[in-house]
Amino acid sequence: YKPYDGYAWYRTRVDIPASCRGGAFTLTIGTIDDYDRIYFNGKKIGATGKETPRWWEYKRRYSIPKDLIEFDRDNYIAIRVLDLHGYGGITRGPVQLEVKKEGLLEMNYSPYMKNLSGYDVNDFHRW
Questions:
Q1: pLDDT tens-digit profile of 13-60?
Q2: C-alpha to C-alpha distance for 92 and 62, rounded to whole angstroms
Q3: What is the Cβ-side half-sphere exposure of residue 80, based on CA atoms within 13 angstroms?
């Protein structure tokens, strides 16, 4: 793959069981080069841009409001990445959805994990 500058979208679905109801939901993404906007079931839950110092190595953690979650049904996570120059995209994992209940990890879902080498927007093409 060759370096790509511009927008790229990553999308996956996750089924969250009703047993997780009442938990705290967090989407964790290692690093993204350069900027991102994150959506859960079509609603924006967070973004990182130039206002964040050293955004290219800033670990993303976004809370997911409980009212956006459809239990025992498909839920969709979409990540829009803007790469400004050189290699870009999701450059380091993990990419995972965590659910904690009463301080304990109830569920940890990762749609795709691998040891990433280099900065290539295509690394997460299987999403």
A1: 888 999 889 899 999 998 998 999 999 999 999 999 999 999 989 999
A2: 16
A3: 13
pLDDT digits over 64-95, tens only? 999 999 999 999 999 999 998 877 888 888 88
Residue 68 phi, psi dihedral angles, 5° rounding: -90, -15
Q: Pick from 124, 120, 122, 99: which is nearest to 111 by CA?
A: 124
HSE of 92, CA atoms in CB hemisphere, 13 A? 10
Distance from C-alpha of 107 to C-alpha of 122, rounded to nearest angstrom: 27
Reading the block at residue 124, the tokens are 């997460």
For residue 59, report the phi and psi dihedrals to the nearest 5 degrees.
-75, 125
